[in-house]
Amino acid sequence: MPTSTSKAAKETALYDELIGRSRELTVLGSCSAVLGWDEQTYMPAGAAAHRGEQLALLAGLQHDRATESRLGELLSVLENSSIAADRDSIEAANIRQLRRDYDRRTKLPRGLVEALARTTSLAQQEWITARKNSDFASFRPWLEQVLELKRQESQCLHETLVKERRAAAKPAHPEDEPKPDAGATIYDPLLDQYEPGAETSRLRILFKALREELAPFVRDIAEASRKREARGEGVKTSILERSYPVERQKMFGEAAAAALGFDFQRGRLDVSAHPFCTGIGPGDVRATTRFDARQFSDAFFGVLHEVGHGLYEQGLPVEQYGAPGGEAVSLGVHESQSRLWENAVGRSRPFWNYWFPIARRVFQDALHDVPLDAFLAAVNHVEPTLIRVQADEVTYNLHILIRFELEQALLTGDLPVADLPSAWNAKYAEMLGVTPTNDAEGCLQDIHWSAGLFGYFPTYTLGNLYAAQLFHKANADLPGLDDAFTRGEFSELLAWLRDKIHRHGRRYTPTELIERAVGEPIDHRPLMASLRHKYGALYGV
Amino acid sequence: MPTSTSKAAKETALYDELIGRSRELTVLGSCSAVLGWDEQTYMPAGAAAHRGEQLALLAGLQHDRATESRLGELLSVLENSSIAADRDSIEAANIRQLRRDYDRRTKLPRGLVEALARTTSLAQQEWITARKNSDFASFRPWLEQVLELKRQESQCLHETLVKERRAAAKPAHPEDEPKPDAGATIYDPLLDQYEPGAETSRLRILFKALREELAPFVRDIAEASRKREARGEGVKTSILERSYPVERQKMFGEAAAAALGFDFQRGRLDVSAHPFCTGIGPGDVRATTRFDARQFSDAFFGVLHEVGHGLYEQGLPVEQYGAPGGEAVSLGVHESQSRLWENAVGRSRPFWNYWFPIARRVFQDALHDVPLDAFLAAVNHVEPTLIRVQADEVTYNLHILIRFELEQALLTGDLPVADLPSAWNAKYAEMLGVTPTNDAEGCLQDIHWSAGLFGYFPTYTLGNLYAAQLFHKANADLPGLDDAFTRGEFSELLAWLRDKIHRHGRRYTPTELIERAVGEPIDHRPLMASLRHKYGALYGV
């Protein structure tokens, strides 16, 4: 059959061209990633303006290449080719995902992209000043501008999203009605940028169920905590605020990171003002943290968190580098990896069975008189507070649920920007029982909205939910995981995550990926069960 | 005159487009510079292959943009515009220099550029192995391949160079004969890439004159040195090989760099295996060094040297950034800045009048029993040796003169590659009185030829010649410079260099720039005079 052979060869050539273009775009993006990492770690202060010019040029080059009409042509042909016919193949997944990316990029007018870049850059500067002065009034017009642009962005992406959902919801029999939830709110296209396929309506149900269990649980812990403190038996978090020399923290953190499986031949750990992790490319994954010589846990759990992100990046399939099959699937799944290593592993008794004796030798001055139980109580202390990034793993999700509700209301306009501070404070009083005394510790605390990151917050809680489900399933699949941790061995768990999550890249949607890994739909109950198990014991609730 | 106004406005718009394109190219190149710096300083080992892919992509993008026909169109129009008519203006200089760059880039076929990149990349790997094993035979075929490609490169650039020289040599009266030296040897187009406008024939005359004075002077010093040693009065260089803790070396080096005027708000000093300095862009100039806790002078003078390069980069006019007017003019002039600060300033008695008391406090264990005179003798010790990068400032130029002769003979074919080791050894015996015992310390010692850098070596000696002339003139213009150094003040000298060299970018040719600064033609005598003055006193010759 010479005809079909030559047709197949032609399709393969087109597929290779598509992937080659995708790889070029990825490599170009990875150059920006190096510059971004450098900006946060080593760049001299005086280079800021020039760095902006460099990143803008690279972003422009990327945008031009990502929206070339040739990409659209290749996708149109390949979607109807035999390569795409085998829906379960990695090639078909790559075509699907590149179509997804292409449609979104080409739907945004260049003017809007540039206005967003410019306005959010200025708004972030204004936010820094506004937070410093706790001056919401000066930030308000900037937030209004950002919101207006994000509404436009949502509108541009709306049609594509609805079309995709209709296609996905297409009934098996043509005469059936399509499923009813193919529509989309103004929030959906923004959320979908960070968590592809996530639907606002489903998240609302999921988060409501979580809140109904979590809020009373937090109240119970707070109550138990107060009683203990009244008896003089409160948790001594002050043991974490002793002398922890920075060089030793660095050494200890790197030792733990290496033990979890982070490969320092293919990665680094540096210092930056705001901790992050960036996967630059194969063999190049860089995490950062910040050290305080009088505080142990921020840096250490920060390292475990960022290294959790890094392990995901290091586990992506190298042979798919440059194609969607070689990329992380969503922010929620990314966060599930960081939270799993930070909290489920790093704050567990089995982990510290192995590491605490070492910590006592490394930080002799600070820990010589501290028993393991007191240390575990301190690193797992629960207390409703005002600041999200300092929150413990139990109260953390309430901070997110507040933001999830408020940012939807801001986008629809149901909540006027002027009313944000009072709405914020009311929510905190209601859900956490604490009230900000000023906007710096209230609605000005996070950078996200000034940066245009609407729809981003829920991925933190999705990450926590995914992490709990994954860790529950890993323990079921790998009996003796606790014993392994106690021996300082983490490779079994990492291999399991590599197999269930990392190696798949963007082959499946986030929901499909998690459901395939755990064999169940996304659910809030595994998280609540694990919190009840651990904190029930610690606080006697 | 609406017509001429609108013509001027049109020309201005075209000029702005030209400079805008030049700036984009410069910014793109500066992204590669960040990646190159990172590769040498912090990049994890496992990222090497990916870094190669990143740099190749950026280089390809740069090449495409640098050879776009629109650039040629703009240059053709602007060369005949009123903007270019005022030859002394910075705008006219920018047009001239962009024409120069464009002609050279477009004359090289893409196949040759790629073959050179590929072959020199492989040849450098082979060179590393060959040097380690002192195995010239294994490197020989690679050197032959590189030479063949460089001959082709020279041929491609030959016509452009001859045309430029003819134009420059055009007699004032059309009936006169053009000057005779408008031709070019095979070496000229390669040399011209690093030192624009330099001519092989003139360099031969200049270097011959230098050699005739320098070789006997080196012999006299060596003789005097032998006699002193026989009397037990030899220079004690061992005082530089005592305990010099790395952290203290870093602190001391940074203090000296800052005192010379290096702005750490707009620059950095890091560690790399091979010291270098890279000007990434406005506000971002990065030098590196390497430390050895048992050796003082390599790192310290390495810092002064690289910081000398850095001061030039920090002194380029920011308002011309992206245009030739904002770029360093040549490797020779660049080297003149590093050598001036390293040798003329950094190895002088006035410099150490101020810094030695500080050094004695910082390196108490090493220097407590060392008088200033012994220290000055040690950091200025002259001894003919085999390795260029370890050579003192007197013998250094003989190493260069050897390479200058040999690389011309290699290119013309007068010296077959197979005969290089014996020719090398003969030259060292003749000019320095030392003979390599193997090729690792002979003709395999430098990376340059494996990297295709033919025509590069002479810029080191040009740098030394320029530096001596500049320093001589600076002392004439600024009486009391020695006293200022003794007080630890270097800003007067830096301001003079900023005014005479840095602020001009590529406005003039290197020769014009130096001649304007010192008021005399390039000459070997100021260097010889300064060497005789300093080393005559030290060695009594």
UniProtKB/TrEMBL annotation, chains A, B:
Entry cofactor note text?
A: Binds 1 zinc ion per subunit.
Q: Which SUPFAM superfamilies match?
A: Metalloproteases ('zincins'), catalytic domain
**Which key words are in the record?**
Carboxypeptidase, Hydrolase, Metal-binding, Protease, Zinc
Q: Which domain of life is it from?
A: Bacteria
- The residues the record assigns to binding Zn(2+) are H305, H309, E335
MF term (GO), any: metallocarboxypeptidase activity
Is Protease among this UniProt entry's keywords? Answer: yes
Q: Which residues form the active site?
A: E306 (proton donor/acceptor)
Looking at its record, which EC class is this enzyme?
Answer: hydrolase
**Mind telling me which CDD domains this protein's record contains?**
M32_Taq (cd06460)
Q: Mind listing the GO biological process terms from this record?
A: proteolysis
Instruction: Return the EC number.
Output: 3.4.17.19
Known cofactor(s): Zn(2+)
Q: Does the keyword Protease apply?
A: yes
What PANTHER family does the database record attribute to this sequence?
A: CARBOXYPEPTIDASE 1, METAL-DEPENDENT CARBOXYPEPTIDASE
For this entry, the protein name equals: Thermostable carboxypeptidase 1
The source organism is Paludisphaera borealis
